[in-house]
Amino acid sequence: MDNKDLNNINQQSLDNSQNQGCISRPISFKGKGLHTGRRAKITIHPSPVNSGIQFQRVDRKGQNANILAHWKNTRELPLCTCIASADGVQVRTIEHLMAAFYACGIDNARVEIKGGELPILDGSSIPFITKIMEAGVVRLGEPRKIFAINDAIEVHEDSRFIKIEPADKLSMDVTISLKKIGRLNWRGDVNPTLFADDISRARTFGRLKNGLLAQLTRFSRDPVCLGANTSSAVVVVRGDKVLNKGGLRMPDEYVKHRMLDLVGDLMLSGGHIQGKITAHSPAHRLTHALLEKIFEQQAYRELA
Predict the structure, then answer these.
(1) How are beta strands 234-237 and 205-207 bridged, if at all?
(2) Are 67 and 74 in contact (CB under 8 A)?
(3) Does domain 3-303 have CATH number 3.30.450.20?
(4) Burial of 93 (0-12, 13-18, 19+ CB in 10 A)
(5) CA 166 to CA 164: how far, in whole Å?
(6) What's this model's pTM, rounded to 2 decimal places?
């Protein structure tokens, strides 16, 4: 999807208000999940102030199928962010929609979902952002929750790490190293308008051989990549060759997609995080662990 798809979006509504927001009317998306390959439908509904982002499995009647999108409710699954209710009802691959909520200033929403995984659409956040902004965002009468980092917090896993330090805005310095592609880095300030205009267009990616191997997981409990193809992801072969028509959307699409995932996962704080993030090969589980450490150590202050 090109920048022309954002021409009709009111950019003022993306960045100028520090008040909470919700969508003005219900909108729906449907399609296959990236990992399960199964079709699902979601409908995003307006929700009251301070209600947060709630996912509701409408195909699990009789169970506690309401799940708050919060780091306390995460469950580890491969290559995605998954949340679960106390009854074990799960919704996976929520990170791209959560990143779209960041861009659009959506703090409160009820997301009805029929299925266990969100539709992957084109593998980025831009389809969500475009349709949300076309529907319109309503500003509510309470300020957004902003968590400003007071103390440096760091999480390591072998050579991977993510660190956050005090700062007066959200900024990122993200590095990834990909075999036969090399080291990629992006650094700078991040805000909803920049995210919507640029970072949100970056698609999930993977090597063709990994997708083929993933077919072997078809009967496993936690399948991966069964819905991956050139319509839903960047598919890489023979070192650095991209199978997708038109190639990459931007030279640094790979590292920007990792940033997209990171922004979506930070929304599991229940608000917006303010601090300087430095990360090398970030992963969903590392970001979840970082949030847990921030809040358990009370390394933040909530801005009024």
Answers:
(1) parallel
(2) no
(3) no
(4) buried
(5) 7
(6) 0.92
Q: How many CA atoms are closer than 13 Å to the CA of 230, on its beta-carbon side?
A: 11
Q: Rounded distance, CA 108 to CA 112, Å?
A: 13
Handedness of CA 189, 73, 131, 126 (dihedral sign): positive
Residue 226: the pLDDT is 87
Domain regions of the chain by residue span: 3-303
Question: Which residues are catalytically annotated?
Answer: 284
What span, in angstroms and rounded, lies between the C-alpha atoms of 72 and 79?
18
Question: In 3-state terms, what secondary structure has residue 125?
Answer: coil
- Burial string for 212-241 (b: 16+ CB within 10 Å, else e) reads eebeeeeeeeebbbbbbbebbbbbbeeeee
Start-end of H helices in 157-273: 192-197, 208-214, 253-266
Residue 265 sits at φ, ψ, to 5 deg, of -70, -35
Phi first, then psi, for residue 135 (nearest 5°) are -70, -35
Tokens 């699954």 — which residue? 77
Measured CA to CA, the distance from residue 106 to residue 196 in angstroms comes to 13
CA distance 244 to 227: 15
Helical ranges in 81-155 per DSSP H: 95-104, 126-135
Q: Is 54 left (phi over 0), alpha (psi -120 to 50) or beta?
A: beta
pLDDT (0 to 100) of residue 264? 98
Determine the longest span between alpha carbons in the chain, in angstroms.
53
CB 183 within 8 A of CB 173: no
**Mean pLDDT by 10-residue block, N- to C-terminus, for the chain (304 residues)?**
43 63 98 94 97 95 86 95 94 98 98 97 98 97 96 96 98 95 96 97 87 53 81 91 95 97 98 98 97 98 88
Which pLDDT does position 97 carry in this prediction?
98
User: In the prediction, which pLDDT does 215 show?
Assistant: 55
